[in-house]
């Protein structure tokens, strides 16, 4: 997704730098009935800090950009049940957008090979499996398709914690190129980073975690590829795991 700006809605701000090395989990919210929008949530407990966040993304699949007013992020700390509270608060804030576009159709799930379980909140320092660079599947209309991902070195960035606990340090940064091949059509480039948005300035490596497909009544297919990435921002003895979704409308045959 091109130069995504992160809209941050913080319920309670952290007053000290968060220690990281945490793996976010994801929840797929679904598609609009015509496939025009796709939404998902990522959430986690922040490593070595009594804090939790939930971030909900709503993507306009016609241009692969965020819907107005999103993403929504809620960050809480030092409260009982902060994971449940942060997730409930973000759900409340994004509900008008989900209702506006009638988002909730689960679509068809295509399992990938994520580096660790996608619904697991934990520490992302435990020798995760290699990040997957390809995923083959069939579209709802039967056509064979394949996603391929390649990391792209994009210089370096100052990342908090990379120089030691609470200390900035310079780390290598990377974007990615994601392509889609559908039988009978030329390969299509879904994303090709030339620079990194601020929210991914410390991203270091990427993998295809899973894919979700939706077929509208008129036959148009919408693809939402969930990409996991290792993020050196707030590094603590290892990177964090975060997610980004890349979407594509695929015309019917």
Description:
By secondary structure, the chain is mainly β. It has one domain (22-250). It is 8% helix and 47% strand. It contains 1 helix and 15 strands. The protein has one helix spanning 82-101, and strands at residues 22-23, 25-31, 37-45, 51-60, 65-66, 72-77, 108-111, 122-123, 134-138, 144-160, 168-182, 188-192, 203-215, 221-231, 240-250. The strands form 4 sheets. Strands 2, 3, 4, 5 and 6 form a 5-stranded antiparallel β-sheet that branches. Strand 14 and strand 15 (240-250) form a beta hairpin. The longest helix is centred in the middle third of the chain and has 20 residues, at 82-101. The protein is globular. The two termini are 26 Å apart. Residues 1-20 have low confidence and may be disordered.
Compact summary:
This protein has 253 residues and is mostly beta strands. The chain contains one helix and 15 strands; from the N terminus they run ββββββαβββββββββ. The chain has one helix at 82-101, and strands at residues 22-23, 25-31, 37-45, 51-60, 65-66, 72-77, 108-111, 122-123, 134-138, 144-160, 168-182, 188-192, 203-215, 221-231, 240-250.
Q: By helix and strand content, what is the structural category? A: mainly beta
Low-confidence stretches: 1-20
Total count of helical runs of at least 4 residues: 1
H/E element string?
A: EEEEEEHEEEEEEEEE
Overall geometric form: globular
- Helix fraction by DSSP (H/I, runs of at least 4): under 10%
